[in-house]
Amino acid sequence: MYQVDLGTDPATGKRLQKLQRGFDTKKEAEAACAKLINQYSQGSYAPPKKLLMHELVDKWILSKKKIRDTTLTKYKRLLKNHIIPALGYIQVSKLPDEHLNIFYEQLKTDKNLSSTSINDVHKLCKQILTYAVKKKFITDNVASIVEAPRLNKKQIQIWTYDDCRKFLDHVKEHREYVAFLLALTTGMRQSEILALTWKHVYFDRNTISVDQTLERGTSALDPKVKSKNSQRSIRVDYETMLELKKQKKRITKEKLYLGEEYRDFDLVIPTTKGTPINQRNLLRTFYRYMKKAGVRQIDFHDMRHTHASMLLQNGANPKAVSERLGHDVRTLMETYAHIMPNIQEEIAADFGSAFYQKKTPEKRNAK
């Protein structure tokens, strides 16, 4: 424990006294006291304000001017479902790091949240409290001293070529067939596929331009992509382009049939009325046809992993693959490290056979 008198608060005229308990050793208490005195002498110490966590959240949200709608929607969901119910009425200046650790453990045991979701909650708490420090509502960010929940990365599942053919054969007559085909032949994300418009399909060049996404859980098209790398041009194989041409003819017939009732978003894979497809509906179709085809059960995103793995196993340049997927090379190597040993073995074998190849003996001149 330490107690220190910091003089008079010029704003209120009251004495500034700070009492802090909970240290394991006297040395820790002395170090914290010295830090506080140093902050006060340099003018960086702000007396704690009786600000509740939910009030801080309101201020923080108002400060977020440059943020994507999809990101803000995600933040609000985490706040509403988890952070505010558990921490909303705690005074920010009195929030202990132990409380955050208990909170994260409850998210895991009581709410059965994944390690990824708990990590997202931790990052958001840290971001909000960083804002509080910047605004001098508090002096320290307790979330920065709390160890981030360990991520349990899900094992990537991929299909074989045979799995891909079986699934596509079974789903071929479904109107959403092209969505699954694009996932397997281009590695596009689900949100990118459902937001793809005809103006971004270049039949003369056999390319697709990825420039927007469909917001998760909504029918709103976001004229932004996940990151700078995600905005890209993808070269498409001849057979896939043929399927896209068939899809365009099908959509044109539907437009003519519905006339003014058709809501034209220019989408490559719309509903029968022209509107964006609900992502959950697409997933229902995906899981139903996987079962019919009798192939390994994977997530929709694993079709993207399947495409990338096939490219790498076929000897494609990792940089070209990363550009195709909208990754940076480092992310690509980390994500697909499980297939890299085989690739490295093949590279080493090819190099060795070329490097140590015996030269044809030169013919000696006859004497």
UniProtKB/TrEMBL annotation:
Residues 154-349 form the Tyr recombinase domain. Keywords: DNA integration, DNA recombination, DNA-binding. Residues 51-133 form the Core-binding (CB) domain. GO terms for biological process: DNA integration; DNA recombination. Pfam families: Arm-DNA-bind_4, Phage_int_SAM_3, Phage_integrase. One of its GO terms (molecular function) is DNA binding. InterPro entries: AP2-like_int_N, CB, DNA_brk_join_enz, Integrase-like_cat_sf, Integrase_catalytic, Integrase_recombinase_N, Integrase_SAM-like_N, Tyrosine_recombinase_XerCD. CDD domains: INT_ICEBs1_C_like. This is Tyrosine recombinase XerD. It comes from Halalkalibacter krulwichiae.
